[in-house]
Amino acid sequence: MSALDPDSLRRPLDLPLSPDAGASLDRDETDERPSRDEGTIRGRDDAEKLDQYLLRRWRLDGDIEARQELITMYLPLVRSLARRYAARGEHFDDLVQVGAIGLIKAIDRFDLDRGVELTTYATPNIVGEIKRYFRDKGWSVRVPRGLQELNIRINKLIDELVPKLQRSPTINEIAQAAGVEPADVLEALETSQAYNSVSLQSSLGGEHSEEEAMLIDYLGQEEQNYDVMEDRTVLAPGFAKLDKRERTILYLRFFEGLTQSQIAARVGISQMHVSRLIRRSLEKLREEIGDLEEPIVPEPGDAAGVHGVN
Amino acid sequence: MTDLVALEFPAHPSVLPLVRMVVGGMAARVDLSVDALDDMHMALEEIFYASREHGRSRCRLIITAETDALTVQLGPFASMHVVDRLAEPTCSLVARVVELQVLPDKAGGVSIFLTKRREASGP
Q1: Measured between alpha carbons, how far is A110 from A236 in angstroms, rounded to an integer?
Q2: Which residue has the higher pLDDT, A206 or A106?
Q3: Are B103 and A306 an interchain contact pair (Cβ–Cβ within 8 Å)?
Q4: Which range (A216-230, A242-256, B76-90, B93-107) has the least confidence?
Q5: Residues A68-79, mean pLDDT to the nearest whole number
Q6: Cβ pair B46:A286 closer than 8 A
Q7: Does A306 lie at the interface with B, CB-CB under 8 angstroms?
Q8: pLDDT at position A141
Q9: Which residue from B113, B19, B3, B23 is spatially nearest to B65, judged by alpha carbons?
Q10: Residue A221's pLDDT is what?
Q11: Cα(A108)–Cα(A255) distance, rounded to whole angstroms?
Q12: Averaged pLDDT for residues A128-141
């Protein structure tokens, strides 16, 4: 990600301010600048007063330096929140910069009349901005936000419809449940192809990564069948390159005959995720076979015939 | 009910999303499940890659939606090497979840037919 534009720290976001924002404030309160010492209870009160003072200076007088000071004061909060997400494969500094955007939005949108502390308002803004970053980063090509959201909604709907219908839902059923056209469902499903495969080491959601189960924990329950898989000599060269979990998924789908939805239910992931894992495994197999084989040169005029396969 | 769509497109992976969309649209007419559609997509992609490696610059598809089945015809292929490719692991895997037939065509080549039927327990 590119470095945060230093000017963005000085430039107000292009957000509409309510005409009477802060109008009820007593300007006399802003005359004296409170000191900030967070080490005592009195210090916290002073810190809150300082926030209010700076927010008023910014919102009422347009004092850009007050805004800058608020941003600087709350960057430790941003760093603290960004640290929670640092183990998810993104650079910590990038997360801090994304979080800082959330902080700036919070400062610019803060309603002085609400009577809440800036930290209370800023924290969900910062976390939300970081989460949005992860959501957007998960897509290997740019997919419009609306389609991403529909894809996520459809993903959930499929998971809800499978147990309800006791089978995989059709496009039309999903469209009806989502209140969209079948073409929209197809388009949203297609966007899942653009979604980066999730690492097996990745967590399955939530914010407390140390307490979370990882995807890898839900796989690998069919170990007794690996030998059977390896006996399938026709598949052996490529399968040797797959990890055990990928072989498990392929085994369940292609040899046990479980549907993607059934595999999803068994391993505790979504049908779309199963689909992605199967595709990734097939891709690995294809690449492995491609590496092993000599390229085939077409033979013009090769005789045609009838060949039944399967 | 029989609907038919014919596609001819460059044998390049970048075109696959478009192909998947068209096949998906036809699958919706048959009321195939998303699982069945995904099987068809994967099978189609594997055959696509197998035939592409054979040096073809263009692909032809005929997608047929019938009352309870979706069939995608790939080809015709002039060379039998594409048939050899079907024995490869990825093709043999997907052949486990779709009906796959190789049939001669009138021009002396072969075409590959992939069929996915609507589940008996379906809507």
Answers
A1: 61
A2: A106
A3: yes
A4: A216-230
A5: 92
A6: yes
A7: yes
A8: 56
A9: B3
A10: 45
A11: 58
A12: 70
Question: In this structure, are residues A226 and A244 in contact, taking their beta carbons and an 8 Å threshold?
Answer: yes
Picking from A48-57, A226-235, A282-291, B19-28, which range would have the lowest pLDDT averaged per residue?
A226-235
Residue A75 tokens read as 């960057």
Total number of domains in chain B = 1
Structure tokens at A278: 């199967």
Are B33 and A169 an interchain contact pair (Cβ–Cβ within 8 Å)? yes
Residues of B in contact with A185 (CB under 8 A): 28
Strand B110-117 and strand B99-104: pairing?
A: antiparallel
Q: Distance between CA atoms of B9 and B15, rounded to whole angstroms?
A: 7
Stretch A183-201: mean pLDDT: 70
Which residues of chain B does A163 touch, with a Cβ-Cβ cutoff of 8 Å? Answer: none
- Specify the range with the lowest mean pLDDT, choosing from A45-59, A79-93, B11-25, B89-103: A79-93
Q: Is there a contact between B34 and A250 if contact means CB atoms under 8 Å apart? A: no
Nearest Cα residue to A84 out of A144, A24, A126, A141: A126
Q: How far is CA A249 from the centre of its chain?
A: 23
Across the interface, of B34, B46, B110, the residue whose CB is closest to A304 is B110
The answer to whether residue B123 sits within a structural domain is no
pLDDT value of position A13: 45
CATH number of the domain within which B80 lies = 3.30.565.10
CB contact under 8 A, B110 and A239: no
For residue B88, being part of any structural domain is answered with: yes
For residues A244 and A281, the model is more confident at A281
B-interface mutation test, from A143, A158, A171, A180, most B Cβ less than 10 A away: A171
Residue B71 falls inside a structural domain:
yes
Q: Is residue B122 part of a domain?
A: no
Give the model's pLDDT for residue A72: 92
Distance CA(A219)–CA(A26), nearest Å, equals: 62
Taking the C-alpha atoms of residue A50 and residue B102, their distance in angstroms, rounded to an integer, is 78
CB A88 within 8 Å of CB A135 = no
- pLDDT, greater one: A148 or B68: B68
Closest CA–CA distance from residue B5 to any residue of chain A (Å)? 16
Write down the ipTM of this complex: 0.81
Q: Which residue, chain included where needed, has tokens 């068209």?
A: B22
Distance, in Å, from the CA atom of A99 to the CA atom of A130, rounded to the nearest integer, reads: 6
Tokens of A203: 């967590």
**A102 pLDDT exceeds 50?**
yes
Angle at B55 between CA B50 and CA B56, to 5 degrees: 85
- Domain containing B92 equals 3-117
